[in-house]
Amino acid sequence: MKNAEKYARGYYMPPKKCMKWAEKDYIDHAPIWCSVDLRDGNQALIIPMSLEEKLEFFQKLVDIGFKEIEIGFPAASETEYEFCRTLIEKNLIPDDVTIQVLTQSREHIIKKTFEAIDGAKHAVVHLYNSTSVAQREQVFRKSKEEIIKIATTGAELCKEYKKKANGHITFEYSPESFTGTEPEFAAEICNAVIDIWEPDADNKVIINLPVTVEMSLPHVYAQQVEYMCETLHNRENVIISLHPHNDRGTGIADTELGLLAGGDRVEGTCFGNGERTGNVDVVTLALNMYTHGVEPNLDFTDLPSLIELYERVTRMKVYDRQPYSGALVYAAFSGSHQDAIAKGMKWRDEKHDQHWTCPYLPIDPHDVGREYEGDVIRINSQSGKGGIGFIMEQQYGYDMPKAMRENFGYKVKDISDKAHKELSRSEVHQIFKDTYLNITSPVDIVEAHYTQKADELIGAKVKAVINGKEVECSADGNGRLDAVANALTTEIGMEINVDTYTEHALERKTTSEACSYVGINVGGSIFWGVGRHSDIIVSSVKALVSAINNAMKK
Ligand SMILES: CC(=O)SCCNC(=O)CCNC(=O)[C@H](O)C(C)(C)COP(=O)(O)OP(=O)(O)OC[C@H]1O[C@@H](n2cnc3c(N)ncnc32)[C@H](O)[C@@H]1OP(=O)(O)O
Ligand SMILES: CC(C)C(=O)C(=O)O
């Protein structure tokens, strides 16, 4: 980049330091939420939503718990107007939900807006005009006084139309392009509007401070918000609303610091859809609060169904790494993360801790409709024994000895590395079965008979098939497994020492099978085998034979 001198900071600091917000370290209660999906989100889409799509999205927003929903700009198009009328005439707005409509400060647009909301029980009429230096100079080519006049004329008109309206109407005013406006001027124009609207405890007004274009660090916006909170007239009857966009990628930080600075209300969209880089993502905001133990008053327990609807009606995609919502945000591929998550889950099961503290997972995936199976531990060449062992245990019931987990882990990652792809759980299971389970070639045992001998020895008489040839052999050992291993040693010409033996029951729906794991030491190397059978002795011998077969393949 060779042209930095082309740019200069386009924001203005308040005339005094406003840093009280910095003393707080978290947001201790949910703000008033207002969804602007159907207006700011919709106006930024390649193909704006149809009437049916808007109706479906509106219903979902209601289900999630939004009590204020900006449904559009009714003067903008026939669809916008019809949508508003349909909601009202078909009685689709619950009594505790307020619709909000946006209007420019132009008489014919205000008039049409009031016509659109006729019959609504509650509505917010949202009036805006641009106040930034750039807009004043370049777009409107007007003085500060003339810009104030646009706002006050609109405010007066709204007041007049309200007198004739039959529902409960709340006013909202936005000094649009607030972030490029001198804070003193923003306060002056907002105060002029507040003075006209004369809010009181029963008729509060909303002053919305939009980050129309994000142009500063988040703490600058926080200072601007705090300054406005301290400077606005009739503050106790003014609801301070925040409406951040995300041009610098810090819309969430703007909103969170803005709330610390005195914001009461947040306008945003699901997944951050909206003009350019989008509006602030309310899902992230709400779940950030939730993970601090604060009830957000929005219910995202079925996030997958919201994503499905959103992607269908907006024709946008939720990014794979979108906080809380993306397809990959719970996935751990890498070994050390998987190991820590698997241990964290186990710890949680054992301790029944009240709080969620699992490493690497800032939220319990179940709380937002995601699954541990499939969503969390995923296998590729970066994976390790901890995660792979976790899948084998959780999903398939195999509790491998620790050393065998390592052996299997390397086997799986090697296959993934060479195939250069992620492996599904069933593929991992198949590798396990092919590698270790009841392996019968080149050695298979057809029959085995055991006798209890003196000195606590066990004798084994074995009929086996080795490389396709039937043989009979026998030996003693200090247990059945040892005896069989000794019997086979002479026939296969390989010294076998049983190094590890573990077993457990494998519960199935109606029966229970025994599962045995045997590690044998052959010439200093360990080879593993697994046996499954309804009989524990047979299962252990099958594990031994599987291990021998693995050793013979080397
Ligand atoms: C930051 C935001 O997201 S603000 C919301 C933006 N959303 C939208 O604009 C979507 C819906 N808008 C529309 O459909 C159209 O713009 C309409 C129907 C509202 C108006 O349409 P038109 O009058 O044909 O066009 P347009 O919006 O270009 O009008 C621009 C004129 O309005 C003036 N104007 C723009 N905003 C405002 C405002 N808030 N208050 C008063 N006048 C305004 C401009 O200065 C310009 O004036 P000029 O004609 O004297 O030059
Ligand atoms: C109308 C206003 C609130 C707006 O959408 C913005 O400034 O981004």
From TrEMBL:
One of its GO terms (cellular component) is cytoplasm. Its cofactor is Mg(2+). Keywords: Acyltransferase, Amino-acid biosynthesis, Branched-chain amino acid biosynthesis, Cytoplasm, Leucine biosynthesis, Magnesium, Metal-binding, Transferase. It comes from the Bacteria. SUPFAM superfamilies: 2-isopropylmalate synthase LeuA, allosteric (dimerisation) domain (SSF110921), Aldolase (SSF51569), post-HMGL domain-like (SSF89000). It is an enzyme of class 2 (transferase). It catalyses: 3-methyl-2-oxobutanoate + acetyl-CoA + H2O = (2S)-2-isopropylmalate + CoA + H(+). Mg(2+) binds at D40, H243, H245, N279. The keyword DNA repair does not apply. GO terms for biological process: L-leucine biosynthetic process. It is found in: Cytoplasm. CDD domains: DRE_TIM_LeuA. Its EC number is 2.3.3.13. PROSITE patterns: AIPM_HOMOCIT_SYNTH_1, AIPM_HOMOCIT_SYNTH_2, PYR_CT. Residues 31-304 form the Pyruvate carboxyltransferase domain. SMART domains: LeuA_dimer. InterPro entries: 2-isopropylmalate_synth_dimer, AIPM/Hcit_synth_CS, Aldolase_TIM, IPM_Synthase, LeuA-like_post-cat, LeuA_allosteric_dom_sf, LeuA_N_DRE-TIM, PYR_CT. Residues 439-554 are annotated as: Regulatory domain. Transmembrane segments: none annotated. One of its GO terms (molecular function) is magnesium ion binding. Catalyzes the condensation of the acetyl group of acetyl-CoA with 3-methyl-2-oxobutanoate (2-ketoisovalerate) to form 3-carboxy-3-hydroxy-4-methylpentanoate (2-isopropylmalate). Homodimer. Belongs to the alpha-IPM synthase/homocitrate synthase family. LeuA type 2 subfamily. This is 2-isopropylmalate synthase. It comes from Ruminococcus albus 8. The lineage of its organism: Bacteria, Bacillati, Bacillota, Clostridia, Eubacteriales. The gene is leuA.
